[in-house]
Amino acid sequence: MKVLVTSAWPYVNSVPHLGNLIGSILSADVFARYARLKYGKENVIFVSGSDEHGTPIEVEAIKRRVNPKELTDQAHEYDKHLFLNVWKISFDNYTRTESETHKKFVREFLLKLDKYIKVSEDEIPFCEYDKLYLPDRFIKGTCPYCGFEDARGDQCDNCGRLLTPNLLINPKCSICGRTPVFKKTKHWFFDLSEFNDKIKQWISESRDMPENVKSVALSWVSEGLKPRSITRDNKWGIQAPFAEAEDKTIYVWFEALLGYISAVIEYFEKRGEPQNWKEFWFGNNIKSYYFIGKDNIPFHAVILPAMLMASEEGYHLPDVIAATEYLLYEGQKFSKSRRIGVWIDEAPQLMDVEYWRFILIRLRPEEKDTNFTWRETVRIVNTELNDDIGNYINRVLSMINRYYNGVIPEFNDNNTDDNDKKIIEMIKETPKNVGSLFEKGKLKAGTEEMLKFVRECNAYLNLKAPWNLYKIGKEIELKNTLYIGVNSVRTIAILLYPLMPSYAQKIYDMLNMGDIENEKWDDASKLYIKPGHKIGQVITLFKKLPTDFEKEIQSKLENIRKDIEKIRPTLLK
């Protein structure tokens, strides 16, 4: 089995905030780490990259009177540093849409869609003051569907509907705010209508696709897919490869989606294995996972599969598109201009990055919009991480040190009671349950299973009371309890690894079990640690957040922001 893991490509017009992070990249990283333990490192590839073309960058460049490439070079390097070096995201390839491999692939791929490409005149808004055509985000107005007054020319951020500029009510130029005129200009259209029935059949028959994705895709096809322009009149982007289209560029959404393929090609090119990318894109022994926000569902569940079908080359269609709802910040939408929220270069200054990883997965908005609050953050760290997980591990390992000098005691299978058998059964079943949920894109739900197991382990330890067993000399029962306990600790470490890799390794160091990245997920279901094995030094794993953390956080955040603003690239300030 080959497993392709992707995350939506971050657009480099701003630093991602915590909501962006959990919606795509962090979720994908957690799954990729799980998949490597489950299927083997050599069978998993995890890719993404900076989405750097299109109108927002061009608008910003015009305002700043600089070349768009200057801005995206700065932003790409900054985001890449944050993902790889600060958040330790385990990409196999984090690339960019300015990659020569990407640009070459996009042009070649689109030429293969020739029989589904139609040329037609389209009415495009034109700003007579700025002397520019205004596609996509160059133009804003009121959404005709929901009445949102700040809708863009390609999509409404409020209701998620895809738009065209001529649908907007009271359209205005994004640069100068003036009302544009509409001019006819020739464009190249991808005829989505040819794939209406095929998309409907594919999405309806999918066994693994989440219901929220199915619902959006089926809603689209029920309305009837229409041809959509794949060219634009803006200058910043990949030049269109079609004859007589020398003055056009490719619409950013069409080319960015193809980045999932070009990033895999580029990865294997760098390895000197230029044909091996096909193992992850062609054939039946593949499973692909796309981690995105819900506003990107139409592009991934309709436009991407339609393009793959249109190529007629047998590309593997998406298996699981895991789309999150929105993460709110203390009841409000994240807003850079209003300074509402926390951004990914600020968060590490407030708390350990891996605490953040755990918190964000625990708050992952899988079923509905979810509210991030500092109160809930404190509860998750102090109760779930410290009290439930950390305290249990410390108690088990400390008692093995105290009563058996750190050596795992013998296990007598013939003297187990129902409580022992319950935990042994949970050791066997919990990794399967967590893995099953992960593979449906339900990461938060998977952590619920993990914590359920941890709490049962704590209850088991309290019920068995090894300290009392030691006092009254019930040697066999004491040994069995601690033997089961230490093996449950190992299971917890493996379950925790995708979320908190370095802390999972700390548990493995305490267990003296080597490198956790060499483990196999399925082995978490076994009583793997044998009698006679000697554990390592026991340390305190987690620290509670102070009781005044919630009160002090805002002043801390303001001070951190002042320092961060000094080092952010020009584009991102």
Layout: helices, strands, pairs:
Elements: E1 2-7, H1 18-23, H2 25-39, E2 44-50, H3 55-64, H4 68-86, E3 93-96, H5 100-111, E4 117-127, E5 132-133, E6 139-142, E7 151-152, E8 169-173, E9 181-190, H6 196-205, H7 211-223, E10 228-229, E11 231-232, E12 249-250, H8 252-257, H9 259-270, E13 286-293, H10 297-311, E14 320-324, E15 327-329, H11 347-350, H12 353-362, E16 370-372, H13 374-404, H14 418-438, H15 443-464, H16 466-472, H17 475-496, H18 501-511, H19 549-567
Can you describe this structure?
The protein has 573 residues and is α/β, with parallel strands linked by helices. The chain has a domain of 151 residues: Orthogonal Bundle (Isoleucyl-tRNA Synthetase, Domain 1). The protein is built from 19 helices and 16 strands. The chain has a five-stranded parallel sheet with strand order 3-2-1-13-14, sandwiched between helices. Strands 5-4-9-10 form a four-stranded antiparallel sheet, with no helix packed on it. A hairpin with a 4-residue loop joins strand 4 and strand 5. The model has no long low-confidence stretch (mean pLDDT 95).
If you compute it from the alpha carbons, what radius of gyration comes out, rounded to the nearest whole angstrom?
A: 26 Å
CATH class of the domain at 375-525: Mainly Alpha
Could you please say which CATH topology of the domain at 375-525 applies here?
Isoleucyl-tRNA Synthetase, Domain 1
Helix count, DSSP H or I runs of 4 or more residues? 19
Q: Note the main sheet.
A: 5 strands, parallel
Shape: elongated
Helix content: 40-55%
Low-confidence stretches: none
* Oligomeric state of this protein: single chain
Class from helix and strand fractions: alpha/beta
Task: Report, as a whole number of angstroms, the end-to-end distance.
Answer: 44 Å
Mean pLDDT equals 95
User: CATH-wise, what's the superfamily of the domain at 375-525?
Assistant: Isoleucyl-tRNA Synthetase, Domain 1
